Amino acid sequence: xxxxxxxxxxxxxxxxxxxxxxxxxxxxxxxxxxxxxxxxxxxxxxxxxxxxxxxxxxxxxxxxxxxxxxxxxxxxxxxxxxxxxxxxxxxxxxxxxxxxxxxxxxxxxxxxxxxxxxxxxxxxxxxxxxxxxxxxxxxxxxxxxxxxxxxxxxxxxxxxxxxxxxxxxxxxxxxxxxxxxxxxxxxxxxxxxxxxxxxxxxxxxxxxxxxxxxxxxxxxxxxxxxxxxxxxxxxxxxxxxxxxxxxxxxxxxxxxxxxxxxxxxxxxxxxxxxxxxxxxxxxxxxxxxxxxxxxxxxxxxxxxxxxxxxxxxxxxxxxxxxxxxxxxxxxxxxxxxxxxxxxxxxxxxxxxxxxxxxxxxxxxxxxxxxxxxxxxxxxxxxxxxxxxxxxxxxxxxxxxxxxxxxxxxxxxxxxxxxxxxxxxxxxxxxxxxxxxxxxxxxxxxxxxxxxxxxxxxxxxxxxxxxxxxxxxxxxxxxxxxxxxxxxxxxxxxxxxxxxxxxxxxxxxxxxxxxxxxxxxxxxxxxxxxxxxxxxxxxxxxxxxxxxxxxxxx
Length: 553
Ligand code: FBP
Description:
Elements: H1 10-16, E1 30-37, H2 44-50, E2 58-64, E3 75-81, H3 88-102, E4 107-111, H4 115-120, E5 123-125, H5 128-134, E6 145-146, H6 153-166, E7 170-175, H7 177-192, E8 198-203, H8 221-242, E9 246-251, H9 258-267, E10 271-272, H10 275-280, H11 285-301, E11 307-312, H12 320-335, H13 337-341, H14 346-354, H15 359-366, H16 370-376, H17 393-410, E12 420-425, H18 427-430, H19 436-454, E13 460-465, E14 475-480, E15 485-490, E16 493-498, H20 508-522, H21 538-541, H22 546-551
Parallel strand pairs: 3-4, 3-6, 3-7, 7-8, 8-13, 9-11, 9-12, 10-11
Antiparallel strand pairs: 1-2, 2-14, 4-5, 13-14, 15-16
Helix pairs in contact: 3-5, 3-19, 8-9, 9-20, 11-17, 12-15
Residues 82-83, 85, 176, 205-207, 252-254, 313, 387-389, 430 line the site of 1,6-di-O-phosphono-beta-D-fructofuranose.
């Protein structure tokens, strides 16, 4: 593939010259230290049996050493997997620079279009000239991404054949929880057959749900939340100026509500839903709607017929009656795929579903508007997830709140006006040019991946910690991916997967919201974060998320 020069904006040109910062331990001589043996986060016995060759590996800490880390020439393949997240290109740049620092004859190949590129042998060589064009840019377009799940031996064998043709000794998979689960399975298989190909993962996802004791944040979360918060702030200012609309804004983030929580903390809207709280309190759709309507009424009683309500993308999966419904539909579609796929009309599909699910779920299914029912039956992604970004929860909530307020109006309880507008912010943030934090973090992650490869290890995820400190003080590590694994039901079967990090209701970010939300709902307390700044004072340009700052405070 030849780079197609596109006219660049002045910001792009200036940004190309930005030199991402590395932890000080990566800038001189390097020593890779091994810690004690580790275990998986849950289901230790079962996971140990499934991963006999890679279970129990030690954590690696990268420290300053007395000699430079050198390697023989290595050939490495890199894959971008899953949804785009700001900073992917910088991971590749960091990986490239790290490999070249260890041996200038090392080579980097990019598999095209995600994991399928490995299986189908579609690749390009990533040269210094090509990488130069993509430093500090958003997007994954340098090699493209995809969501193909690698879980069959035939795919692993084909991938190995393609690596052998190119002389590739290591593969870096840049992805979220599902893609790093793929990485873990692949590492085990290649180790079990002594394939001589190392597998290293990198924690990517705007959703922020690939984090744990050893991974403080997934990359892209910082930039995406800053983009959404800029837009939310602009809408808040419009609402405050016009004083006639309620804006219902759905925010991406699939299951976990980290994005919604971060944006709530940055912009202080009048209402914010956190799916994990809905689940914990077992709130029904009716209760959620009633609570939103209560805030609208109180504001209206104060003559404020406007407001902003933030909704996490995955909400619908956390409402107990709908969660049960989705789980039954998932099992049904997995078991009776052929019978379902031949049905042509929506009505036939609804009838089929209703005749195979429990009475409670039938009731929940039939309480939903037709378009939401259709959206719940759409194809799952290759990992068995409902594609929640396509379910229009924001519109569903507006409809239900409208109904509730009509009832209250008829009873004389609500005297105001309610005009609502729906928004969905997701794709707007996934390919933004990485913030300084994400530019530094991703470049460091790529560099760490190179060091782990240089030290001959497999089955590790690159990790950079101490992220609220200046980049020079960040701590570089390699974390066994198996430490993050547990068993979960996918496509109707228990599978080893990386445990998703949901919002912790006893964590400081949620507590900060819970402490203030009553005031923010009634008193208009909006904050307008403005656009990401790449140049200027450090407190404006370099700060990372409120979530991380609170978690680490
Ligand atoms: P990853 O988990 O792969 O990083 O994807 C995140 C995400 O942006 C989710 O927030 C969203 O639900 C999903 O991707 C949408 O992806 P697609 O456009 O492929 O349906």
